[in-house]
Amino acid sequence: MLQSGHCVVLGGSGFIGSHVAEALLAHGYSVSIFGRRNSKKTNLLHLLDRVHLFEGDFNNEVDLERAIHGADYVFHLISSTLPATSNDNPIYDVEFNLIGTIRLLTLHCS
């Protein structure tokens, strides 16, 4: 079990991310959610008054740093593609997801 603190859920507006955010809130954590600009908030409607929402580009270092600043815990659930479509453009899939993850680890672990 995590200790108290501030959690950031990258990809928190998705199905899994919204449920992670909801569980964290239920356990008393403060929660911020980072997602793409203009992404659907359907999964978050019942949480919007209890979370801080950041919108930006996962591959933009400034956006990412702004989202994770002050976080005690980061849950990385963001992805640009679905498994079914990732093979359609594997270079894009690697550029967005793998390089973005390396950037996240570099920012958060330094």
Assign an overall shape: globular
Radius of gyration: 14 Å
CATH architecture annotation = 3-Layer(aba) Sandwich
Beta-strand segment tally? 4
Instruction: Give the low-confidence spans.
Output: none
Spell the H/E element sequence.
EHEEHEHH
The average pLDDT is: 88
What's the helix count? 4
**How many domains, in number, for the residues?**
1
SS-based class: alpha/beta
Spatial order of strands in the largest sheet: 3-2-1-4
What is the CATH domain class?
Alpha Beta
The termini sit apart by 24 Å
Largest sheet: 4 strands, parallel
Mind explaining what this structure looks like?
The chain has a single domain, classed as NAD(P)-binding Rossmann-like Domain (Rossmann fold, 3-Layer(aba) Sandwich). Helices cover 40% and strands 18% of the residues. It is built from four helices and four strands. A four-stranded parallel beta sheet has the order 3-2-1-4, sandwiched between helices. The longest helix is centred in the last third of the chain and has 20 residues, at 90-109. It is globular, with a radius of gyration of 14 Å. The two termini are 24 Å apart.
Characteristics:
4 helices; 110 residues; alpha/beta; 4-stranded parallel sheet; Rossmann fold
Short description:
With 110 residues, the protein is α/β, with parallel strands linked by helices. The protein is built from 4 helices and 4 strands, in the order βαββαβαα.
Question: Secondary structure elements and their pairing?
Answer:
Blueprint: E1 6-10, H1 15-26, E2 30-35, E3 51-55, H2 61-68, E4 73-76, H3 83-86, H4 90-109
Parallel strand pairs: 1-2, 1-4, 2-3
